[in-house]
Write a structure and sequence with these properties.
Length: about 325
Amino acid sequence: MKIIYSDKHVKHNPPFEIYDGVYEAYAEKPERIMSIFNFLKEKRAKDIYPPDNFPINHILDIHHKEYVSFLKNRSAKLSSKEILYPSYFIRDTYTPVTPKTYEAATSSVDVALTGAKYVLKGEGLVYSLCRPPGHHAENKTMGGYCYFNNAAIAANYLSKHGKVAILDIDFHHGNGTQQIFYDRNDVLYISIHADPKFKFPYSSGFEDEKGRGEGLGYNKNYPLPLGTTDEEYLEILKKTLKDIKDFSPKFLIVSAGFDTYEKDPIGGFKLTIPFYKVIGRQINSLELPTLVIQEGGYAVDALGEIAYSFLQGLSK
Ligand code: OKP
Ligand code: ZN
């Protein structure tokens, strides 16, 4: 197993997000990934690798050209302390552009693509420590702390070599990944998340969103009530594994958010730390080459332990 990490994410560090007009501390902070990285450095230092630099065309395969240049040029134009809460190419007030946002977002994509590269080379399990996260980024929209859709870009890259299933276990629905693959039948998107009637992103993640055209049947949402426990979650997880088996993909990507944890400050499920090992073991039973992409998870002090528990279950 390999772990991919770059410290470039640190420079993307917005001071606040705006919720109902109120300025709050930014939950998607560098300490999240530092917590995981420091924990894994203790346990598995020899498995940690830096990312390669991939050409921009991988991002352009997924994101609209004008969207990518907007992010690049606006990041570059900002003075060192300036922050932009954009008025277009954006779905909410959680996703500001800072001087280093473009650099951090492209580096996060490199971390994901490097993981995909190792999977292609025959590595059975790779964990890409992406930050900023990606699953809310649509082809031309940033949102929910996400700028480029790391998992979608990696999935598209792998899809040139065989069918890809994406299992999204972040607490929030991955509206971006869903939108990007909604018309495709070579990439299956399955998500288990909080019912969007109550939680972000509100506008998608419902059960009746099943894909369109050729993609019909290749998008599956499992919205769950707030307060979902380990046991209840396991039952649904097993259903998603059956969906994945029926699809018989060549590769599996897991959009791994740890905001399903019982003490997550913005989540609302009740999953316990040892249960992430169970999730890992279940996913491992698929026996597929697996790329884990980091998404959310905001209980900073617990993230290292959660990630390690998950990896223990996933390790062959
Ligand atoms: C990103 B990912 C808290 C509101 C938070 C934004 C949620 C973004 C989640 N004041 N709303 O899926 O973990
Ligand atoms: Zn989330």
